[in-house]
Amino acid sequence: MPSLQWKTTALAVALLQLITLSMEAVESSSSSSLSALDRIHQLPGQPQVSYQQFSGYVTVDVKKQKALFYYFVEAESDPASKPLVLWLNGGPGCSSLGVGAFSENGPFRPSGKALVRNEYSWNREANMLYLETPIGVGFSYSSDSSSYVAVNDKITGMDNLIFLHKWFVKFPQHRNTSLFITGESYAGHYVPQLAELMLQFNKKDKLFNLKGIALGNPVLEFATDFNSRAEFFWSHGLISDLTYKFFTSTCNYSRYVSEYYRGSVSPTCSKVMSLVSRETSRFVDKYDVTLDVCISSVLSQSKVLSPQQVTETVDVCVEDETVSYLNRRDVQNALHAHLVGVNRWLVCSNILDYEFLDLEIPTISTVGKLIKAGIPVLVYSGDQDSVVPLTGSRTLVRGLAEELGLKTTVPYRVWFAGMQVGGWTQVYGDILSFATIRGASHEAPFSQPERSLVLFKAFLEGKPLPEVF
Ligand SMILES: *[C@@H]1O[C@H](CO)[C@@H](O)[C@H](O)[C@H]1NC(C)=O
Ligand SMILES: *[C@@H]1O[C@H](CO)[C@@H](O)[C@H](O)[C@H]1NC(C)=O
Questions:
Q1: Which of the 8 DSSP states describes residue 384?
Q2: Which residues surround ligand 1 with Cβ inside 6 Å?
Q3: Which ligand minimizes its atom distance to the CA of 227?
Q4: How far is CA 221 from CA 300, 350, 353, 396, 399, in A?
Q5: Which of 107, 188, 376, 404 sees the fewest Cβ atoms within 10 Å?
Q6: What is the mean pLDDT of residues 261-279?
Q7: Which of 35, 61, 442, 447 is catalytic?
Q8: Is 38 noted as a catalytic residue in this protein?
Q9: 236 catalytic per annotation
Q10: Best mutation site among 231, 246, 252, 266 for ligand 2 pocket (most ligand atoms within 8 Å of CB)
């Protein structure tokens, strides 16, 4: 059982590290001044706001000088009474700062030289913490480039755990705040894995006040998630009846991806995939099949989930606002960010060498463990996404509910945002929820910000989604 052994050793090592950290925390008498150093005075072009923002680095490995970059936005009002929410984007290797904060649910979006306010920012409901992880993503770096090689889910999980623990040393006032972990896409791996680590550490020392997790268009079990793509394409008119037949019987998508990452795509799969690619075309955004291609490169956050698209990238995007903004020297100075070992800030890292086969680790079972430990889970789906379609997620959630013997507590029904249907929802055992967001892409808060905020608020409050308007 080499993997189990690995886990035990790694846990012991990390445990020691955390104990050391806890002692450091006790000894550091001026921790509030630590966060003061990270305080953002003003982001270039930013409208005046009354809440505080912070950003900077947390060293997660002193020997290898691994430092993770974070951006923290206090809740718009009464931050002391609001929960703390960690947001993670996927990839693996894409930035929670560029995608999550500046394109999805953060307080501002770049527009020309300025930042414009996002009226549906999630900091209306919570203190929002965005983390660029793993090492090598965005402004996060290691001075030892071997740290970028063979990075996997285990390393990422442990680094994220250590990050958060050390972040609490800077922000001790949030140590006891209700903590939620949220994210999308490949964060369907990061989030449950981090939550599971927290529960393991909590057994010894109650370090993390974890209250729930939310996963948007997440990869939870790659075969179910990926093979739902064929039907999504077919039912949305992106592929023909015949190609659908080949894509479900001759070579399905999970088989293709699995061959692709083992470096040996069979002639059969190659033929089917070229049919699929030809019919779906490069000129439709797979993250929202109703959109014209490429609103922004920031939104194509997943190389791993659509490997065939790597070789056929289309760049009809004009100026990419977030990329330009985060590459400005004055912006980097205001954020206390440095570029180490790279020339530019990128949406998705090109120096990170991730263990792509970790994609096949089923994290739906990890979600099951969290539920058994009493942690509420929300799985939500932007319903226009073909990369991780709602149908796969819905199947996985229902299957998990059955396995755990959870009865339906909210039957499948619509929910409202304003006077319109925001999507559909079903809840099992008052602890496991599924919801769609109508008209939303893979990056749901980007394309349906108002509906996403309604969903987020209900999730934090532990309430069912609005049944009437
Ligand atoms: C957090 O809670 C623990 C016990 O519940 C308490 O001892 C500690 O003082 C609290 N810390 C803060 C910063 O509120
Ligand atoms: C996908 O293909 C694999 C390998 O051929 C097969 O084992 C699996 O059952 C297929 N899954 C679906 C949903 O068709």
A1: T
A2: 172, 175-176
A3: 2
A4: 21, 25, 22, 8, 11
A5: 404
A6: 95
A7: 442
A8: no
A9: no
A10: 252
Residue spans of the domains in the chain: they are: 40-221+355-461, 223-280
- Using the CB atoms, write b or e for 148-179: b if 16+ within 10 Å: beebbbbbbbbbbbbbbbbbbbbbeebbebeb
Query: Which two structure tokens, joined as six digits, stand for 233?
Result: 């394409």
Q: Is the Cβ–Cβ distance between 386 and 289 less than 8 Å? A: yes
CA 34 and chain centroid, separation? 27
If you take atom 8 of ligand 1, which residue's CA is the nearest one?
176
Range with the lowest mean pLDDT among 21-25, 64-68, 238-242? 21-25
| Long-range contacts of the stretch 261-270 (C-beta < 8 A, 24+) | 261/307, 261/356, 261/357, 261/359, 262/357
- pLDDT tens per residue, range 9-38: 556 556 556 655 554 554 444 555 788 999
Please give the CATH superfamily to which domain 40-221+355-461 belongs. Answer: Alpha/Beta hydrolase fold, catalytic domain (3.40.50.1820)
Within a 10 A sphere around the Cβ of 63, how many other Cβ atoms?
Answer: 6
Please tell me the residue having the least CA distance from ligand 2 atom 5: 255
Task: Identify the residue whose C-alpha is closest to ligand 2 atom 3.
Answer: 255
Establish whether residue 118 lines the binding site of ligand 2, counting it when its CB lies within 6 angstroms of any ligand atom.
Answer: no
Known catalytic residue at 358? no
Q: Which of 8-12, 136-140, 203-207, 285-289 comes out lowest in average pLDDT? A: 8-12
- The pTM assigned to this predicted structure is 0.91
* Active-site residue, selected from the candidate residues 385, 393, 433, 441: 385
Q: Count Cα atoms within 13 angstroms, Cβ side, for 462.
A: 11
Coil, strand or helix at 247: helix
| 252 CB within 6 A, ligand 2 | yes
223 CA → ligand 2 middle, Å: 8
